[in-house]
Amino acid sequence: MTAKMLDIVDQAGKSVSGENLKNDIKILFTDIDGTLLNSDNTLSPLNMQTLIKAKEKGIKIVLATGRPVFSVQGVIGEQLKKNDLKLFPGIYLNGCITYDENGKKIIDHVISDELKMDIHNFTKKKNFDQYCIWYTADQTFCFSINEEIKNYMNVESVSPKIINEETFKTLKVYKVLMCLNEQNMSSIFQSCKDLFAHKINVANTFMYYIELFHQKTNKFEGVKKICDNYNISLNNALVIGDGENDIEMLQGVPTSVAPSNASDKVKSCAKYIGPSNNDAVVSQALQRFCGV
Ligand code: G3H
Ligand code: MG
User: Fold this and answer.
1) How far is 230 from 226, CA to CA, in rounded Å?
2) 0.90 exceeded by the pTM?
């Protein structure tokens, strides 16, 4: 049977009925870009209303994103606050900073200075250092602003600070984001994987973005910690995500959904496939699996 536009289907393409599922969902972990937000970078009224209803039903709502908390605050912070939805607990910077519900860091994994310098020297040698954005816990930095970084600034609602080599050396970096384009994406992605994948996570997280972050961390590490803190079993978690930085958490729980806009690779890692981000996959999944 062909999936309807708003349907949620299993890997065989069969429509899934939430009523037949035995897992009682108590917590939602949702990715942001390509999942909770539409492609125009906004949170739709339908997604928002459904999140509110889910919260009223006692389901915990947790953001799990590659963004740092200040970027999420900038793009949807006010909208969430108005509806009494919280940024904490939350999984940020791909889990490299994960906060408990009081805003206390329960995971804090920074890239070593040596590796940071290796990555930087490599990007300079290959002449793509101008595409890199360096994330500390509370700010982003770059060496110059090109077209790709201008686009990124629109999407992320953050303005990287321009720095020099001396300042760069002092930064405690949690994530490197390479904002690439159709022409240079695949070759740079491949070189980064060849050189660094044994030392650090290298993932295509969104559009032409490649992110490098601590090897011991991914969003699933955050999912486990937060579930543990709440004493909620992973069997009672619903995970939704579209990027390579969502793969571990999609594989780590029995109820996971990739939106139809995810790549085939990511879709194959989820238990279910849902509608696209632009068709409110988060709302649809909450309706289907939680009866919201
Ligand atoms: O800036 C975009 C990202 O780092 C990817 O964010 O994990 O919420 O999709 P996401
Ligand atoms: Mg995403």
Assistant:
1) 6
2) yes
